[in-house]
Amino acid sequence: MRRSLVVGNWKMNGTLASAELLAKGIIAGLGGNSADIAICVPYVHLPRVSELVKNTSLALGAQNVADKSSGAYTGEVSAAMLSEFDCKYALVGHSERRSYYGDTDESVAARFCQAQEQNIIPVLCVGETLEQREQDQTFAVINTQLDAVINLAGIAAFSAAVIAYEPVWAIGTGKTATDEQAQEVHQYIRQYIAAKDQAIADKIQILYGGSAKPDNAKGLFAMPDIDGGLIGGASLDAESFLKIYHSI
Questions:
Q1: For 96-130, what is each residue's pLDDT tens digit?
Q2: Of these residues, 96, 128, 166, 186, which one is catalytic?
Q3: N or C: which end of the chain has fewer CB within 10 A?
Q4: Catalytic option among 94, 128, 186, 246
Q5: Where in the sequence is the active site (predicted)?
């Protein structure tokens, strides 16, 4: 049986003081839920939040990772640097990185590999834009995004990874895929992996990442191939984030 996972993505929000307050609020409300939970915080807040989450069930993650191990890459943060702050997860290929900062399928695959070299679990974000969905390209887009990683790292690499399906048209728009729309794509992703390795497909956590909120999380998480969520805006409020977590 797969464990469920909820990951909060704070994006570029917060001050050190608000980050401390939010992390403490989440820790205080964890309760006895056995599902996995993590927060991906801005780089500059990793040291302090790393201290706060020690000896708790709340894991730490980064919002990106460099596609190189070290060198003259101004502004980048390497996987080795992240590992020093006990980052368990790192997002790679988030739609905002792909759309605004030019991350390509190839660079995302390299970031995926860099994370794994430091025993950091990459959370590979895949998904289609509204235009691509309307042109019935959803599955073709996801194939391409998954194949870039498979071609570089091999299917076995997914035994230590997470996939997050982000319908780009539902991020920050207030729109959410219906439970059935989300399940259809999650099922497709799992079947695509299964065609290459059934054992990995059975084990891998596939998260929904499109405007999940406390009022729709329960229905989404009840779907057989949805193993949790990558939560954006709702993760900036401890109460909302915990409601989503406890809806599993």
A1: 999 999 999 999 999 999 999 999 999 999 999 98
A2: 166
A3: N
A4: 94
A5: 94 (electrophile), 166 (proton acceptor)
